[in-house]
Design goal:
The chain has 372 residues and is α/β, with parallel strands linked by helices. The protein has a single domain, classed as TIM Barrel (Alpha-Beta Barrel), CATH 3.20.20.80. It is built from twelve helices and eight strands. The chain has helices at 48-56, 74-78, 85-97, 109-114, 116-132, 174-177, 181-196, 221-234, 250-259, 271-282, 302-311, 359-370; strands at 62-65, 102-106, 136-143, 202-209, 240-241, 263-266, 288-292, 315-319. The chain has an eight-stranded parallel beta sheet. The two termini are 29 Å apart.
């Protein structure tokens, strides 16, 4: 999603072995042991067996990071004045028609802060539309990418030719300048999780997108730890995760893989480097999902990546569905100031009228998604 610090993403990832210590106490009464999955404390990570059983119960998950083409960012998506069910309906229908069954969708705490009941009502409306099109949802809470400040109300117009010119972090720099923010963020996370913790239309909670990005590095670690703690206290029926994305952030990576119920990751590299990243994460013996891939300039393509992910039963969630106000058809670091069409689209599958950017890509996606 953000411009990558390390192009050789996760290659040779060395996080250390994952240790989960189970301390057993002698019990003089020798009570019979309950099944392992029943012994899990609500503050603990899912046992490996529970995670693997969860994966076996699901189809191969494939889809896109979804932001309606009429929204420049998360706030324009979710605020009452600009929430656009008509566009959501139309664009999720296009996704369903090519065989996608999962969308990754960003939330934002400000949309909740200014209108708690309305925000949750709109989440329910979105979920109803998605369910109608046989699409499950991954919701994302926090995010360290792009613009550091934000406000409720009218959002900025797109800057021509600039990738994600209006996307906003959550909570961004406000976390370091507002001492009263953390209790409010805790209330936000717990309210949403309590409301939707048993909603089967939600497949996964992605607690924090790319922690440490935008130069934050380990400054993001306390919030990362907090959001996992808050989620465990609610104990949703769905798994929780936060995807690793940069080999250089070793402290963050270690916490993420040791505390996620399933392993998620981002990779915008070619098939050779992507496979190396997969191999480095397989040692954790948990279900895996790539929650961001497909950047054509970087040779991360549907043609060379999606078949690998399907063959290894790894969830495949590319960045971008329909070209729109987010401008992610333009590359991270190659703006086109006059807003003209890029020679090669960076992300996205469809134009705003529903025609594919590349018909051969859509044909391949359909082929992969119809052969279950």
């Amino acid at each position: 999603m953000c411009q990558r610090i390390s192009k050789n993403f996760l290659v040779g990832l060395v996080i250390g072995c994952l240790f989960i210590s189970c301390i057993s106490k002698n019990n003089e009464t020798k009570k019979p042991k309950e099944p392992q999955e029943e012994l899990v404390d609500k503050y603990e990570r899912w046992p490996e067996k529970k995670a693997l059983d969860w994966a076996k119960s699901k189809p191969w998950l494939r889809g896109a990071n979804f932001n309606p083409s009429t929204a420049i960012n998360q706030l324009e998506f979710w605020q009452a004045e600009t929430f656009d069910p008509e566009t959501i309906e139309r664009e999720l229908r296009w996704a369903e028609n090519i065989g996608f069954n999962c969308m990754r969708v960003y939330l934002h705490h400000v949309a909740w802060e200014v209108d708690k009941s309305g925000f949750k009502k709109r989440i329910k409306e979105y979920l109803s539309i998605a369910e109608k099109h046989n699409i499950s949802t991954i919701f994302v809470f926090f995010d360290d990418c792009w613009n550091p400040t934000y406000s409720a109300g009218k959002q900025p117009d797109p800057i021509p030719g600039v990738h994600n010119s209006g996307w906003v972090r959550d909570p961004g720099d406000l976390l370091f300048t507002s001492p009263n923010l953390t209790p409010m963020l805790e209330a936000y996370i717990k309210d949403i999780l309590e409301t939707f913790k048993d909603d089967k239309r939600i497949i996964l909670w992605d607690l924090y997108n790319e922690p440490g990005n935008s130069g934050y590095k380990n400054k993001s670690l306390p919030l990362l730890k907090n959001v996992f703690k808050w989620a465990r206290q609610v104990n949703p029926s769905q798994p929780i995760s936060s995807g690793v994305w940069n080999i250089e952030l070793s402290d963050l990576n270690k916490f993420q893989v040791e505390n996620s119920d399933i392993i998620t990751y981002h990779n915008y590299n070619d098939e050779i480097r992507h496979q190396k990243a997969i191999d480095s994460l397989k040692k954790y013996n948990r279900p895996m999902m790539c929650t961001e891939y497909m950047a054509r300039r970087n040779n991360s393509l549907f043609g060379n990546i999606m078949p690998i992910l399907k063959e290894q039963d790894i969830g495949a969630i590319n960045w971008g569905l329909v070209a729109g106000k987010s401008n992610t058809k333009y590359a991270w670091d190659e703006p086109i100031p006059d807003g003209s069409e890029p020679e090669l689209w960076f992300h996205e599958i469809f134009r705003k009228d529903g025609t594919p950017y590349k018909q051969e890509e859509v044909d391949l996606i359909k082929e992969l998604t119809t052969k279950e």
